[in-house]
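Review box. Two proteins, two foldings.
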Amino acid sequence: MPAASVLRIETTKGIGNDCAILALARYLGLSYFDVLQQAVLAKGRPIEDGGGLSVAQIKAVATALGTPLILKRQFDPDEAYGIVVLHDHTVILRNGLAFDADGRVWDWDEWHASYQASKKTKWQRGYLRLLVARGE
């Protein structure tokens, strides 16, 4: 199954650490609760019990839901469509726009600068990674 051609915008459901679940639901075109159920199985405990999903868990959930993902370490934000993975957050990136868990849609450069400023850190090489459907 390829990535969804229409981006369905759902926002957080009040469960902490659910940005990866929202990103997967949006990217795959599935409901939040379908992805949440599979994520709990992959993680082996409730999501709110600490920490979000690791890259390996995100990939396992996507594969179980019918769309294997691959990780790209280099991408053009103006052309890319996928799930941007950071050490503590995920967003959807589509054609230069970042779709955040709270429902806000940002210009990629603005989101990138805002996130970096909020973390008071400098980007390191390989810090941004992109998960995309295999074959895309």
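Next protein.
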Amino acid sequence: MWRDERGEVTYTDGSAEKLAFDHSDTTILHNDGEALISRCSQFNEIAVNDGVLVTEGRDPHLRLPPVRIPGNRQAVIRFGLTAPRTTPIQLFYTGDACPAFSEQCSILTRVAEGENHVYFTVPGSENGTMLRLDLGNE
């Protein structure tokens, strides 16, 4: 566990998630570039520059399209990103335990300067799952 000013959060190197992702047989959200960006419902302090998301300001985040993860399953979600410096990123998700975005249903990790692939494991929900990705707010 890694503790920050808000309490305990999980810090992982993503090795177990990477293995699960690499051996999965279902895609729930595909990054098809501009098409995915057009399906995102909210951008906060994020600009789109030639199909690339560029963060601006102190609280950049985006709300991704809803996904369906059966309640008895979980999904591993991979994001590829380039960071100008080591910075935190946090994935919030809704589900049966959290009908709205909250710290309780979020995963916080750090990315290194340069190219990164980050993996998050999200539990399933009978009511559908919404995702919000908070990017580099340091």
